Amino acid sequence: MRRSKNETRLDVAGLLAHGSLRGTTPLYLTPSSGLIESVVLVSQLEAIRQVRPNTVVVLTSEMGSGGWLVSAALRHAWERRASAVVVAGSAYASAAVGLAERLGITLLATDGEPAALALALAAEIGAALSVVDAELARVARTVAKDTTLGDVLKTISRELDGSGVSLEHDGVVLASAGMPPRETDEVITVEVGEANSAVRFTLTARVPTSGVHNLRLVRSILEVATPSVKAAWLLEDLLSTARAVPTAAIAGLDQDPAASGAEFEEKHRHLLKQLGWREGEPYVAVWFRSGQVQDHRPELTAVLRLLWRKVTVRSPLAEVQGGWLTLVPAGEEDASTQLETRIRTRLGPALAELGLVAGLSRWQEDVPALALIVREARLSAESARSTGPGTVLGFASLGVVAATTFVDMAAVALVAELSLPRLMTSPDRDVIITAVAVFLDHRGSVSLAAKTLNLHRNTLQARLNRARELGVPLDIPSELLSVHLIAKVLQRASSSVSST
Amino acid sequence: MSTILTTEDIRNLRTGAHFLTCTIDPTAIYIYAEMIQRAMEDRSLELITVDELAPDDLVVAVGMVTQGLFIADMPPVGDEFLGCIRAIEASLGRSVRAIYSLAAANINGIVPLMVGLQSSLPVIDSDPMGRVFPLISQTTLNIGNVAIGPIALMGVTGERAVVEVESPQRAETLVRALVTELGGWAATAMYPCSAQQLKEHGVHGSISRMIRIGQILDASTSVERKLLLLADLLGATRIARARVSHIESLSRPSDLGLPAQPSSVTLEDETTGRIVRLEIQNEILLVLVDGAVTAAVPDMVTLLNSEHGTVVNIDDVQVGDVIDIMKITAAAQWYTEAGLDLTEPKAFGIPIVHPRRRHA
Fold this sequence. Notes:
By secondary structure, chain A is α/β, with parallel strands linked by helices. Chain A is about 50% helix and about 15% strand. Chain A has a five-stranded mixed beta sheet with strand order 2-7-6-5-4, with helices on both faces. In chain A, strands 13-14-12-15-16 form a five-stranded mixed beta sheet. A four-stranded antiparallel beta sheet of chain A has the order 9-8-11-10. By secondary structure, chain B is an alpha+beta fold. In chain B, the strands form four sheets. Chain B has a seven-stranded antiparallel beta sheet. Chain B has a five-stranded mixed beta sheet with strand order 4-3-9-7-8, sandwiched between helices. In chain B, helix 1 packs across helix 8, helix 2 runs parallel beside helix 4 (about 105-120) and helix 8 packs antiparallel against helix 9. Chain B is globular, with a radius of gyration of 19 Å. The interface between A and B is medium-sized, with 21 and 22 residues.
């Protein structure tokens, strides 16, 4: 049967009842039994100034048992947060009982040889420690049998009586087992070093404060389990990399953006088949990338793979140029919608924390070529960047609007500066630009635009006339697209200025 | 400047000598004070400062050395000290010009006045302890490398010895052995030195300080006022006002060579709950408050009746008494390395380092 974590704890009450302190006379016992972690036999009062907390201080018989000595020993022991003071004989200690009570430190008297008592106590502490060592060795053997990260974490949690155990990176929980965390938990963390030191991981246990766990033992358990955590994780990552080869291949093979889906399929039909892709099977592609333009962090692959398991374990995640790609089978449109929702709810906060965004391809009944859905997902991911880290964007909700996200806003703004100088320097610029943008959004309908802007028709008309005065070519149909684009870009620029 | 002492001064001196030791048995102080006062009816007693002597004048310390016997139990015949002084003079071939106290408290604080009256020698307002210590080697003269010998001893039976010895520790052993053989106490004259040596290595103003303490304590003022005046005069501080809760037996053995009647008193400060412990061997050596060293020899610790401001004899302390525990800093020499080596608790068999040394 498995030993409970508190059996290795020695305390004054326990050792008085059935341990090496049994033969002593308690002159004063503190209401709560003190923990015992070590013992010292002191023959010099000053030596007590160096003892560690939770130590039993045994005064040698040579030191005598004069009341002043017991008093001074109690004081030093109290200052060092010792568990108890043991003195030889009890004749002169009686007057010190009041002081023991006042300081709240256990005072015991022994009729036997104090040195013998200290030796017996030391043996008992040593035995308890060896129990700890045996326990740790057993834990190490048990977790070593697990091959998956999930199993390793579950085993650790079980060893800690179901306490929550998690592997974390930068505050993001990558994998966990056991009880969900609570506010009051005692958090114990050990570093899980990695060859690539750019990314730091921690193995964290959350044990209830009210519990009986010896926190040092909990830490030791985490430490002995760490190699198993690393091994299982590396193994899984290795297997995932192997499984992700077919996915990575699609991104790798699709190097010709001009090639149509059919051409791509035709060209690579044989290879795709060899890689295990079956024709006519519907997939949704998911592309992850950094929220920054030029910032790909391959070291996040392992992190992202663990996170991705929260969405699905079947589709491997491949590290590809400019991001990460996965293809998820989606037999029907609902499955695609659910996937997007799952990614958003389960990964959104973590993606935001890691500075990543995600883009998804559309679900289409006619099963487009894999290369096309990969392109869609990549486009969506790139578009998602403009909304900031943590964004999850489906191509279905994007459509042609995606085009605008690739417009060089700085260049468009420059065009506006140069070609519409009077508009740009006008004090009522923002009002006019909004009027123009909304007017064009409504295909030139003044009444609909006025309604949207909550303005009177004549007011809007007046603003549009003002725009014409300032040089905006509202009446030349071939220039309207450009005007619309400029209006949109300026609108976005002014809103980003006002929001910062 | 020399002073002619009055009987009033002697009464005050008696109180002061008692205050500075808080002795177990003050009877001898009282007996001597009374004898001195009687003798002063037809003689005058001159107290001088060491500066009034020529630098190479021979001066000698006089004092009682006891070994387990109260002097009141076997009173002196009266010529013992004169015999000692004559023996020193004979040994050195020079006349003694003045005498000084071996200690600045207890019986040895007052004995030299009687000797002064008997011998017509002036008494110097200086001493080699600035308080009282149980060992004759525990002197500031010893710190200053002033020779303790030759030492003259004379007991109640008229037997006399002169010990020629250099090492103060060795002198201690020899004198103790002789005192036992002489009947339990002996009059002694020791540390014969020049006025210059005493000036350089002694503690000064000892007798006048005891008189001043007596004036304060014997005045009919409030206890609080007395404590204030003592604080002013001596830098005395009150460690606690506490009620005696426990007295431990006087039978505990002490190390050989230490004249001692070790005992302990435990008190409780009723306002703060602090537990005060006094360790006693002849005098109070150690005060622990909640187990922490608050005063330790060479600090002087004395007890005052909280109601009357009178000195409390350790012997008279009873469970239930409320006592003011006073701490008085000793002469500066005692807090030097050499001073602490001679007098910190370790010298009394108590393995505690004096707090001043720890913080040095």
